[in-house]
Amino acid sequence: MKFSEKDIDSFLKEGAICEKCKGTGNLEITLQCKTCEGLGNLYTCKVCGVRILELRNTEDGICDSCSISKYVYSLDDSCDIKDVEAEKLYHGIVNSKASFGVFVDLNPHIRGLMHSSNVGTLPEMGDPVIVLVKNIKAGGKLDLIPKNFKKYETIEIEKELPLKNSAEIDSSMKGRIIRIEGDVIQVKQTSGPTIFTINDEGGFIQCAAFESAGKRSYPHIDVDMIVSITGEVTLRDEQIQIEVMSMKLLTGKKETVVRERVERVIDEKASPSDIPFLIKSDIMEKLKPRMLLVAKEIKKAIFHSRPIILRHHADADGITSAIAIERAILPLITDIGGTDAEYYFYKRAPSKAPFYELADVIRDISFALEDSSRHGQKLPLVILVDNGSTEEDVPSMRQAGVYNIDMLVIDHHHPDEIVDQYLIGHVNPAHVGGDFGVTSGMLCTEIARMINPKVSDTIKHLPAVSAVGDRSEAPEAARYISLVSNHYTLEELKEMALALDYEQFWLKFSSGKGLIDDILDLGDHIIHNKLISLLCEQANIMIQEQLEICLFNVKSHKLANGAIMNVIDVENYAQKFTFPPPGKTSGEVHDILVKKNPDKATVTIGYGPDFAVIRSKGVLMNIPRIVRELREEMKGAGVSGGGHLVVGSIKFVEGMRAEVLSKLAEKIASTKVEY
Q1: The pTM is what?
Q2: In the list 217, 356, 420, 675, which could disulfide-bond 211, CB 3.0-4.6 Å?
Q3: Could you tell me if 51 and 44 are in contact, meaning their C-beta atoms sit under 8 angstroms apart?
Q4: How far apart are CA 564 and CA 83, in angstroms?
Q5: Bridging pattern class, strands 308-313 and 226-236
Q6: For residue 113, what is the enclosing H or E element?
Q7: How do residues 364-409 score in pLDDT, each as one tens digit?
Q8: Which residues touch 412 (CB under 8 Å, ≥6 apart)?
C-alpha cells in the first residue's frame, strides 16, 4: 500500500522485481552520526584540545571558539600587582627555571609561577610566553597557566596616572608617580644611569633611567623622538628629576599630537623681544624684521637643546659681534640644560678670513659628528657673524648642507645673492640700502637684546668698540660712541679694539674665553684696566716698529683719476709672523698716509707673493665687483677674494702677481673719486 503511482508504473513495465529492495523484501534505513556528521574522522583543536571536525573548521586545526581573537594584555613597567586580574591573559617573559616549574615576569615588578604540572615542555629563559592568571594568592603570588593562541589581540595596560608637564612638577611632588609626554632633546650616558632630557609644553626636565652601571637604558630611544615617560619625582642636587619606571616611544597620531603641542609652545616661547634699538637708525629699523627672525631661530635652537656653533671674524668687529650673542644665549642654554650645558651645547670659534673657510667648516662638521655619536646630540645651528655673506662662503656652506646643518648670517660685508639659498636667515645692511658702516657688532648687539633683554646694560658698549675697530664713519657709529661716553672715552674704546686685535693674533684659532671678557670689561674692572694698558703698550711698540720699516719702502703713484695709490711689498719689506699681520699693517700704513694727504683720494695696497690687501679713502670702488671682473678677464690667475666695497683683499697664483696687480691698478684708476 506504500507504492506510489510511479512505482506501480515501473513495476508493470519492468517486471516483478522491486527497485528499492531488489526483490529481497528488506529496506535499509541509515542515520547520520551526530559526532562526526557522517565524515568518519575526528580531530583535536591545537589550542584547547577539544575534539573537532577538520572539514568544518579552519585549515589551522583550531576550533570555532579558539579561532575568535583573544585579548592578551601587556603590562607597562609602571603597573603593579593591583593592575593584574585573575582569569585574564598576559604577555610574559621566562625569567628563571626551577624543579617545580618556571618563573615568568609580566613586567619588571610582577612575577608569577608556571607550575611544571601545567607545562608540557618547559620553555627556555628569555622565551616570550602567553599565560592565564589562574589565581592571585596572598602576598601577590600568581599561579600561571601557559596558553597558546594563533590569533590574539594585544592590549597595552598603563597605570592610570595624571599627565603632567614639567612646569607643573615641583619639590612638593617628591615621591609621587606621574606621567609626562614630550620630545627627547638630549641623551647623556653617565657612569650610572642614562639621562634623558625631555622637552614638553611646560619646559625641560631630566629623566634618569637605570639598567646597570654605565649601560645605555632604552637604546631604541634617541634624540628627536616623542616619548611617554612614567616615573617617580625625585630631587638631585636640588633639581627636579624623574626616576624612570617606563618609557615608551609614541608613534602615529599620538606622536603628531604631542609634537604639535610642544612645537606650538616652543614657537611662543621663542618669540623675540621687539624692543627699541639703543640708538636711532633708519637702516636697522628697515632690517628689524630680518633681525627678529634671526633672533627667533636662535632661541628656537636653544629651546630644542640644539648645539650652537658661533663663528666670527678674528678682529675687533667680529669678536664684539660674537661676544654680544654669547652673553645673550649662555644664560638660556644653562637654564635649559643645566650647569654643564655650555660644554655640550655651545662653541665659539674665530675665523682668520672674513669668510667661512673650508678649514673652518671641516672642523665644525667633524666636531658635530663626534658629539652626535658621543653624546647623542642633534647637529648644530651655525651662526656666522662678521662673515658669511659672500660667494667665497658657498663651498663651505654646501659641505654643511650635506648634513642638513642650518646656518644664520649676521654680516656687513657686501653680500652676494647666491649665499641666501644656503641660509635660514641673513641680516646685512646692504639688503636695505645700507653699507658696511653699520657694523656686525652693532647688528649683533641689537639681536642679542632681542634674544635676552636682560643683557642690554652689559653689552651696550660693544657696538662702540666694534665701530672704532672697523673705522666706521656711519652716523650709527657716533651715536653708539656717545651712548657710552659717560663710561668710556673714545681713546679707551680704541684701546679695547686694539687689544682685541692684538690678543686674537696670538690666540690664533682659540676663542680666548675669559681673556676676551677681561679685555671687553665684562669681568673684573681692575684686571681690565691693567690688561688693556699692557696689551696696548705691547701692540703699539710692535706697530711702530713695523711702520718704521714699511713707510720707508712705500711707493706712491698718482693715478689717472687723481687718486694717490700707495703700494708696499709686505712680504719683503715687513716683519713676518708677528703682529701686526699684513692686513693690519696695510691699514696702519694707509692711516698714516691719509693723514699726510687729508684732501686727496688715497688707495693703499699691501701685497705679497699671492695676495693683495686694499684700503682706500675717497675712491668709490666696488672690490667684490673688481674681483669678479679680474677672475673673468684673467684666466689662469686664480683670482678670488672680496670684502667691503672699499676695503678688502684679493688672492691669486704667485706666477701671475705682476699681471694681476697691474690690472688691479688699471681698474682703480678708472674708478670715480669723491675729491
Answers
A1: 0.75
A2: 217
A3: yes
A4: 91
A5: unpaired
A6: strand 110-115
A7: 999 899 888 776 678 999 999 999 999 889 999 999 999 999 999 9
A8: 386, 389, 428, 429, 430, 434, 435, 436, 437, 438, 439, 440, 443, 644
Kindly calculate the radius of gyration of the chain based on its CA atoms and give it in whole angstroms.
40
Find where cell 603597573 sits. Answer: 79
What is the distance between the alpha carbons of residues 194 and 216, in angstroms, rounded to a whole number? 6
CB 381 within 8 A of CB 299: no
The confidence score (pLDDT) of residue 138 equals 83
CA-to-CA dists, residue 200 to 162, 185, 188, 263, 433, angstroms = 15, 10, 18, 9, 42
- pLDDT, one tens digit per residue, over 203-219 is 888 899 998 888 899 99
- Rounded (5°) CA angle 502-508-510: 110
What spatial distance separates the first Cα and last Cα of the chain, rounded to whole Å?
144
What number of other Cβ atoms are within 10 A of residue 297's Cβ?
A: 17
Residue 364 bridge partners (DSSP): none
Please confirm whether the linkage preceding 580 is cis (ω < 30° from 0). yes
Dmax over Cα atoms in the chain, in whole Å?
A: 153
Distance separating alpha carbons of residues 511 and 322, to the nearest angstrom? 10
Q: Which residues contact 359 (CB under 8 A, 6 or more apart)?
A: none
pLDDT per residue as tens digits for the range 72-87: 999 888 788 888 999 8
| pLDDT per residue as tens digits for the range 589-603 | 999 999 998 889 999
Lowest mean pLDDT among 21-35, 173-187, 254-268, 314-328: 21-35
Buried b (16+ CB within 10 A) or exposed e, 434-444: bbbbbbbbbbb
